[in-house]
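Q&A log
Question type: sequence-to-structure
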Amino acid sequence: MNSIKKFREAKGLMQKDLAERLGLDRSTITKWETGETSPRSDMLPEIAKILGCEIGELFEKDTA
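Response status: OK
Response body:
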């Protein structure tokens, strides 16, 4: 889910910042951003809220 990284960086957040706001370990964010794992579906609304995007945008493929 490289979109998480894109939106996180656009907000000026570090991985640790996002992790703290979600009550998670920074390594979890790393795993999401590298595609090793994905966030639980029940976390998607909060992730989108923090990152200022729609849930669907978290799944968009990077065209760059």
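Response note: The CA atoms of residues 44 and 55 lie 6 Å apart.
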